[in-house]
């Protein structure tokens, strides 16, 4: 991929998203959240790719995957007024539909299209897909790390802000439980990324975020998580609630993170 093609894709993305802004301030707020998230994920994936000294054409492919990874979010929110896939439709699958219905990727090489479509399709999957090429898996890992970095940054900033609790969409419209699901605790203590299907409350959702430290692929991302103190910031969201097992989880996650940082 060259500079002209990535430039075209950037413009196409901006024009598409503009069509989702309107007169509803709540909708506009959430469209803006995902638009700005996309640009930051692009920035993260470029930095991770450059830390690996990738060729420039591969950096552009990585950026394109990041640019479109959440393209389904805009239609998802327009239709369902939520970012909760279980209450609407899998936003990754919806994103692939959007890309395939348009001519977004028509000017790209077949191999580039495959990488981007597969990265979009699987970026929110808990496990890496079987049977895919090394190239698809590599770019998917880049995207998953970049996506996690920005989600962690957005949510930890939200937890520490005056707006905390004012935007249910950021916590998937889940009812507070003041406790943790047994399956969620079991998975994180087994050093596994938590299965989103087990998440029943905002408290579970925060544990899912902590569990992402077990699913980071590149040293740059691990260092970024540590330097920005995301683990501590997520845990502060529990500071006013007596949640059994939080201290044990904290020790387990921080021990793993410190052992893995290059």
Kindly describe this structure:
The chain is an all-alpha fold. It folds into 2 domains: 3-144, Hypothetical protein af1432, CATH 1.10.3210; 174-260, no CATH class. The chain contains 12 helices and no strands. The chain has helices spanning 3-18, 25-51, 56-68, 71-80, 91-101, 110-122, 134-159, 182-189, 202-211, 219-227, 230-236, 246-260. It is globular and about 55 Å long. The model has no long low-confidence stretch (mean pLDDT 91).
Walk me through the topology.
Elements: H1 3-18, H2 25-51, H3 56-68, H4 71-80, H5 91-101, H6 110-122, H7 134-159, H8 182-189, H9 202-211, H10 219-227, H11 230-236, H12 246-260
Helix pairs in contact: 1-3, 2-3, 2-4, 2-7, 3-6, 3-7, 4-5, 5-6, 6-7, 7-11, 8-9, 9-11
Spell the H/E element sequence. Answer: HHHHHHHHHHHH
Q: Give the C-level CATH assignment of the largest domain.
A: Mainly Alpha
CATH fold naming of the largest domain: Hypothetical protein af1432
- Domain count, please report it: 2
Question: In what range is the share of β-strand residues?
Answer: under 5%
What kind of oligomer do you see?
single chain
Largest sheet: none
Percent range of helical residues = 55-70%
What attributes does this structure have?
0% strand; globular; Hypothetical protein af1432; mainly alpha; 262 residues
In short:
The chain has 12 helices and no strands. The protein is mostly helical.
